Amino acid sequence: MYERLFQRPPDRHSDFSRLARVLTGNAIALVLGGGGARGCAQVGIIRALAECGIPVDMVGGTSIGAFMGALYAEERSYSQIRIRAKQWTEDMTSMMKTMLDLTYPITSMFSGAGFNSSICSVFKDRQIEDLWIPYFTITTDISASAMRVHTDGSLWRYVRASMSLSGYMPPLCDPKDGHLLMDGGYINNLPADVARSMGAKVVIAIDVGSRDETDLTNYGDALSGWWLLWKRWNPLATKVKVLNMAEIQTRLAYVCCVRQLEEVRNSDYCEYLRPPIDSYGTLDFGKFAEICEVGYQHGRTVFDIWRRSGVLEKMLQDRQGTSKMKAFDVLTCPNASFTDLAEIVSRIEPAKVAVVDDESDYLTECEEGLPDGPQEAYADFQSSPADGGSDSEEEPSLHHLHPSVAPPKPSADAAPPWFSGQDGQRPPSDAP
């Protein structure tokens, strides 16, 4: 019916389609994990996602995934997402801004003022609840030793809190309760389970976290930073492979969430993606274009495989429509599914006019209100012909007469069969 009216297929990306999927339990969530500069690959995967036509009804993220996910939930255009993400990564590579943000390292190496300014310049005073797509971000509450899921409030503050690596940035004080919030990667680096608990049927999870690496340099019991600096700057020195502070923090986040990550990967609701970005470091923001292209090529290949193998068809299939249609025999359009509210309306059966059967065993409202005894007499009266009736034996009863035809008035001498006196007895008749 929908196709006959509009002569075009339903728009999967419209707000009505998103509302219909959420209401019917068919929402598709996009979850972006943390991993520093490797998260730039998520921008390329978002481009491939849009080209493939996969709708997204919910976005969530941790650390760099919280930043990229917020851009996706706020912007309707991929080109704007890429431009704003690239501008922010350029600020992250500015040596001057980094030097000006240095502080005496009691709580952290940097004061966080410069980092706050870069995040605030991207999102301004936007609130999470005002985004185009429902969005959540994960932080680690070190005051209450708990995971926090933020679905409302200041967008830039909670994105910044979710990106606060220990030792680099000070914890952010929650403006609501004053709790100290740190990077969400320490407690849930890929929150696909959170999206599932919020009603998503399918979760597309993009992991850009650190992987196990055993070919590191064995430097012994102590490590001098001056020695590392000499090895890196001297072109004739033997190269060593030692993790920096940011990489150690991301690996700690991965270790803390390895069990949860395995559960997500093995779940039946999660579609797990990991682009080949292991060769890039946590702070390689200067390679934005290169990492973004790697993510795009990987996403396009994976989504093409999904299309040919039927994964996309299964993802967009209504999980409740088939069983409900069989149970209630609902009229449906050919090859239609719950993808638009207009299509849902077209599934509703028209109301059927109730047909009253003269010989039905059910009682009318008048008959139900009568006492048990006189009901039989009333039924006899209904089936008996009128005193002044016609010769036809098939004359309709009184309740089937046209409203303009008044029923015959009973005589004063004749009492109706259901009439009874105050003592419950039938009054005596004058007839012999």
Automatic annotation (TrEMBL):
Which GO biological process annotations does it have?
lipid catabolic process
| Motif, GXSXG: chain positions | 61-65
Q: Which GO terms describe its cellular component?
A: endoplasmic reticulum; membrane
Q: CDD domains under this entry?
A: Pat_PNPLA6_PNPLA7
Q: Which InterPro entries does UniProt cross-reference here?
A: Acyl_Trfase/lysoPLipase (IPR016035), NTE (IPR050301), PNPLA_dom (IPR002641)
Q: Which residues form the PNPLA domain?
A: 30-196
Q: Which SUPFAM superfamilies match?
A: FabD/lysophospholipase-like
Family membership, please give it: Belongs to the NTE family.
Position of sequence motif DGA/G: 183-185
What is the topology of this protein in the membrane according to its UniProt annotation?
A: Single-pass membrane protein
Q: Example GO molecular function term?
A: phosphatidylcholine lysophospholipase activity
Under what name is this protein listed?
Answer: Patatin-like phospholipase domain-containing protein 7
Q: Where are the catalytic residues?
A: S63 (nucleophile), D183 (proton acceptor)
Q: Region Disordered: which residues?
A: 365-432
Record has Hydrolase as a keyword: yes
Q: Which Gene3D superfamilies match?
A: Cytosolic phospholipase A2 catalytic domain (3.40.1090.10)
Q: Does the keyword Lipid metabolism apply?
A: yes
Motif interval(s): GXGXXG: 34-39
Database matches in Pfam families: Patatin
Subcellular location per UniProt equals: Membrane
Q: Which UniProt keywords apply?
A: Hydrolase, Lipid degradation, Lipid metabolism, Membrane, Transmembrane, Transmembrane helix
Domain of life of the organism encoding this protein: Eukaryota
